[in-house]
Design goal:
The protein is α/β, with parallel strands linked by helices. It is built from eleven helices and five strands. The protein is 40% helix and 11% strand. The protein has a five-stranded parallel β-sheet with strand order 1-2-3-4-5. Helix 4 packs parallel to helix 8.
């Protein structure tokens, strides 16, 4: 007997500009709250990419869970510095920004190597705490680690991928690899394993 799985359909974000510009939302649906409620009444899954650009407070995830029905799934993107992307230090919570050296805090683009291991661990812990309300409500689908094109298939990077679950314990993980070296003929089997 073939396995029958549940297929959910959705798009990247309930705040997607093209949805708003196309008039998909009914008149008066102008706030993020109203849009999420309406979106969740039409689709059963969404990818939340706002978590890639800024570390959300846990209160946001509480609201996302409250504004969506049972059975709704929200996949979230890992914060930029958790995936080798740069971030603007102003997108870090104030208490984490205070830990940055002045020369780092003044930059517009800060890469993980600029932050140091301790601050990166703090960012990961803060991210995990921030999405906990979604997980606890049964709304969290997975955490998407979308790596940049400059993240090649290497022994060190493969080991790093194997440790991703430790970064977000209790959460399902998905990985998006944008560097072609992960799927070369000589690397493909190791990547898929």
């Amino acid at each position: 007997m073939p396995h029958r799985g549940l297929i959910k359909t959705g798009i990247t974000s309930w705040t997607e500009r093209s949805l708003v510009a196309a008039g998909w939302y009914p008149k008066g649906t102008s706030t993020a709250e109203a849009r999420l409620r309406y979106y969740a009444s039409r689709f059963s899954i969404v990818e939340n990419d706002s978590t890639h650009y800024a570390l959300p407070p846990a209160h946001n995830a509480e609201l996302w869970a409250l504004r969506t029905p049972d059975g709704f799934t929200m996949n979230v993107k890992a914060f930029a510095s958790m995936t080798d992307h740069y971030t603007d230090p102003r997108r870090l919570p104030e208490e984490l920004r205070r830990e940055l050296p002045a020369e780092v805090a003044s930059k517009r683009r800060v890469y993980p190597k600029d932050l140091g291991d301790e601050l990166l661990r703090s960012i990961s812990a803060r991210f995990r705490e921030a999405i906990e309300p979604l997980r606890a409500a049964g709304r969290l689908g997975l955490v998407l680690f979308q790596f940049p094109v400059w993240f090649p298939g290497s022994a060190d990077n493969r080991r790093r991928l194997l440790r991703l679950r430790e970064t977000v314990p209790g959460c399902r993980v998905a990985v998006e690899l944008r560097n072609a070296t992960w799927m070369t003929e000589s690397s493909r089997d190791r990547t898929l394993d």
